[in-house]
Amino acid sequence: MLSQQAPFEPRSLRQALGVFVTGVTVITTRDTTGKVYGLTANSFSTVSLEPPLILWSQSKRAGSYSVFKSTDEFAISILAEHQSDISTRFASAIDDKFAGVAIDDAFCGLPVIEGSSAWLHCRSVSQFDGGDHTVYIGEVLKFARGDRLPLVFGGGRYLVARPAEEAAPSQG
Ligand SMILES: Cc1cc2nc3c(=O)[nH]c(=O)nc-3n(C[C@H](O)[C@H](O)[C@H](O)COP(=O)(O)O)c2cc1C
């Protein structure tokens, strides 16, 4: 077992936390001029069903930080297993992340990624300081579900979701 006590070496801490496997989302919004923004986020989590609340957190160093901090709505595309290239694109610093990406504006007026596993339209209801991130709580106003398996992220890599009974038994 590898153990460390605070203060931590950031890379080791990231590796340990990265053992926790997640789905992958692209979170999108518009600024007051109508310009669209989006970033890849795996900090997404369900909070409550009644009322329907979700959360995600954004690095204060993200280019789109000031836009998400002041927006009152955002959309979440829960990426499907064939969309790791979309995840990589929205995690990059390129200028027009939306260029060439199949986008649906009809779902909620904000751009969402076509072909994803599920989509949420959220009202940004509160935000909390979370160290080098800000945590956002969103109230789900609308959702839709597709029939594709979700993209999975764990250990710093993209993974594929399969039922446990289909997996080969691990050695040892
Ligand atoms: C799988 C994955 C998950 C990520 N999750 C988050 C996240 O939850 N919050 C965050 O702020 N950045 C996250 N990032 C990093 C952002 O996507 C990345 O910094 C992006 O360039 C930010 O976009 P922006 O600079 O246009 O705002 C993640 C990246 C990857 C590849």
Account of the 3D structure:
This protein has a 7-stranded antiparallel sheet with strand order 3-2-6-9-10-5-4. Strands 1-11-12 form a 3-stranded antiparallel sheet, with no helix packed on it. Strands 7-8 form a two-stranded antiparallel sheet. The protein is mainly beta. The protein has helices at residues 10-17, 65-70, 84-90; strands spanning 22-23, 25-30, 36-41, 45-48, 53-59, 73-78, 103-104, 112-113, 118-130, 133-145, 151-154, 157-160. The protein has one domain: Roll (Pnp Oxidase, Chain A). The structure holds flavin mononucleotide. Flavin mononucleotide binds at residues 24, 39-43, 56-59, 62-64, 87, 91-93, 153.
For the structure shown, list the relevant keywords.
mainly beta; 172 residues; seven-stranded antiparallel sheet; single chain; three-stranded antiparallel sheet; Pnp Oxidase, Chain A; binds flavin mononucleotide; globular
